[in-house]
Amino acid sequence: MRQPLTIAISIIILAMLVAVPWVAPYFYIFIATEILILGLFAASFNLVFGYTGMLSFGHAAFFGVGAYATAMLLQSLQWPLLACLAVSVGAGGLLALVIGFLSVRLDQVYFAMLTLAFGMMVFAVVHQWRSVTNGSDGIAGFAVTSFGLGLNLTLGDPAVYYLVVLCIVVLASALLYLICRSSFGLILRAIRQNPERVAFCGLNVRSYRLAAFTVAGAFAGLAGGLMAPFLRIASPELVHWSMSAEPVLMTILGGSGYFLGPFFGAGMFVLLETWITSMTHAWMLVLGIVLALMVMFFRRGVLGTMLDWWTERK
Within 13 Å and on the Cβ side, how many CA atoms surround 119? Predict the structure, then answer.
């Protein structure tokens, strides 16, 4: 009963997102673009956390590397955006493969701490390697001149870039959904519930964990590649360990056991942050209280709790 409801919610949300450039002012077009990018970022994290049961505190490393890859290519070579995004996917996936190879050997808090350590190492490299990354100033001053595929799009227009982001995020989310619903995704869920039993069945648990970690890093790299042209800068803040906390919070807020949960959580997080910062200078305190209450009273996430309530009514 949940699946038809989830499909109906997806169609309604997609229709609303398509209508945004025609009904919303530019401010909310920017907000919607940020929600889509961070939603994809959180969904990539959910593949590791919600489906495989591994809590990573270094996921921003792949997001930031994807952003830097796109920014460097746009600044130095003026590549089409689509080609830059392809490189961002490869960069995020390759970095995740290296870090994952060294991390998936450990479980639970040890895995979380090791990913945090690697994330801090990546931040240190980005922050200190001024000749390549421009240090704390980041990479800015690049222009997105073309999209690729022979399409003549004015990507400097926020509404056009929003629609491009929407199309890419929808396609990436559809691919991620197919991965989660495949036999590979079912094995990941089994590993989350009982890795010992999966190992007894003759499957290599470490290999599946590494594959999930690598795929998640590739999607995070794509999200970072979309974020750099949106912000017009790739800065070390995108790689910082505190950035890794955002997909964790968004996933838990929306519901880690549900595919749309991270997107729902990203929308709530960005909108709450935007509205609260406009009302008070103590926005971090107010936002923290609101988020804490929501996590306490919506144990399965806001979307998960709503779907459970609907199922019980039926």
Answer: 25
